[in-house]
């Protein structure tokens, strides 16, 4: 498939995208990946292109949204699972751990197109009878040749039959017909957004604690029918919680280290809590029915000032805060 994007002097550039089925998206417009090359020894190169403006992962202060990088890496998981490791369509990929860090200085939106290159190394690849069981993926991300961040993730793969047994009554075909209506959102500006519909947290009256807004009509976070809260919704909730407790202008999330402990169901309230861990980091927990579904460390930093030199903006030197991979 292809899309016309504005490029450089205003003339459209034809940008090819991989088939949406390979990245588990229903909306073709949300496909970020443009191609891939597999090398020997579980090494791969994945190419992507970032829009200068995205309706949900929108730029702030002339910088790309860090979660646009996360969504790009997320799309890489099903892509390589299908094309490089033979995972059949209909299988279910489940996150175990996810870590990312970005350099805010390098995330400036360029005047021309943003060509993204992901250098991927897969390790601890577990196969059984020719089927992928689990693996760990390491990704270094560059935009127009400049390193902007990295990610590290561990995930498992389940056949439809195994997944149905794991999910039981919460399987998509067997789940109850009702869900929790989304409560009123926090003011968008307090969580780094411009539109109420993009807010995924609601107030509870307790400092550092919010209710998750699970809006299944959201066109980005609920791109297709699911039987549990998507991982990107949960990471977005962590990001918005960090903005809520660090509301100063220029504050941004520079990294997360997340452990997924259980599915977040759609038929019961979900609670997101954060507590200070150290000066630039928060401890975050997502709970439902008294059980911990997710725990994480979220790192925040300040976006460096943008200096206008010559023909375009340049960022001051230095990298944002980072943390060690899990």
Task: Describe this entry's structure for a reader.
With 326 residues, the protein is mainly beta. The chain is built from three helices and 16 strands. Strands 3-4-6-7-8-5-11-14-13-12-10-9 form a twelve-stranded antiparallel β-sheet. A hairpin with a 2-residue loop joins strand 15 and strand 16. The radius of gyration is 19 Å and the shape is globular. The protein starts with a strand and ends in an 11-residue tail after the last strand.
SSE layout:
Blueprint: E1 2-7, E2 11-16, E3 33-39, E4 43-50, H1 66-83, E5 92-102, E6 114-128, E7 131-143, E8 146-158, H2 160-167, E9 201-203, E10 209-212, H3 231-245, E11 251-260, E12 271-278, E13 281-288, E14 291-302, E15 306-309, E16 312-315
Antiparallel strand pairs: 1-2, 3-4, 4-6, 5-8, 5-11, 6-7, 7-8, 9-10, 10-12, 11-14, 12-13, 13-14, 15-16
**Main beta sheet:** 12 strands, antiparallel
Number of helical regions: 3
Oligomerization state of this entry?
single chain
What is the beta-strand fraction?
35-45%
Strand arrangement across the biggest beta sheet: 3-4-6-7-8-5-11-14-13-12-10-9
What is the succession of H and E elements?
EEEEHEEEEHEEHEEEEEE
User: How many angstroms does the end-to-end distance come to?
Assistant: 37 Å
The outline comes out as: globular
Could you tell me the mean pLDDT?
A: 88
Unreliable runs: 1-13, 308-326
- Counting helices, strands and paired strands, the structural category is mainly beta
Count of DSSP strands: 16
Residues in helices, as a percent range: 10-25%
Radius of gyration, whole Å: 19 Å
């Amino acid at each position: 498939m292809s899309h016309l994007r504005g490029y450089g002097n205003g003339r459209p550039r034809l940008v090819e995208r991989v088939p949406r089925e390979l990245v588990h998206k229903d909306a073709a417009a949300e496909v970020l990946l443009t191609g891939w090359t597999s090398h020997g020894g579980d090494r791969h190169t994945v190419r992507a292109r970032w829009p200068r403006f995205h309706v949900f992962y929108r730029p702030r202060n002339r910088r790309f949204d860090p979660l646009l990088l996360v969504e790009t890496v997320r799309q890489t998981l099903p892509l390589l699972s299908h094309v490089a490791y033979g995972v059949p369509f209909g299988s279910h990929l489940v996150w175990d751990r996810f870590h990312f860090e970005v350099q805010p200085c390098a995330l400036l939106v360029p005047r021309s197109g943003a060509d993204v290159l992901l250098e991927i190394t897969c390790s601890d690849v577990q196969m059984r009878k020719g089927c992928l069981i689990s693996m760990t993926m390491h990704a270094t991300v560059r935009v127009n040749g400049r390193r902007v961040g990295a990610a590290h993730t561990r995930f498992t793969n389940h056949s439809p039959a195994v997944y149905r047994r794991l999910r039981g009554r919460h399987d998509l075909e067997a789940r109850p017909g009702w869900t929790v209506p989304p409560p009123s959102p926090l003011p968008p500006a307090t969580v780094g957004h411009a539109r109420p519909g993009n807010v995924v947290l609601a107030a509870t009256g307790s400092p550092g604690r919010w209710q998750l807004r699970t809006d299944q009509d959201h066109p980005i976070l609920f791109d297709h029918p699911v039987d549990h809260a998507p991982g990107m919704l949960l990471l977005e909730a962590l990001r918005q919680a960090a903005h809520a407790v660090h509301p100063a202008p220029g504050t941004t999330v520079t990294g997360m280290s997340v452990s997924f402990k259980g599915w977040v169901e759609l038929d019961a309230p979900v609670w997101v809590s954060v507590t200070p861990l150290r000066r630039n980091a928060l401890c975050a927990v997502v709970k439902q029915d008294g059980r911990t579904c997710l725990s994480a460390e979220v790192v925040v930093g300040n976006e460096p000032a943008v200096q206008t030199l010559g023909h375009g903006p340049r960022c001051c030197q230095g990298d944002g805060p980072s943390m060690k991979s899990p």
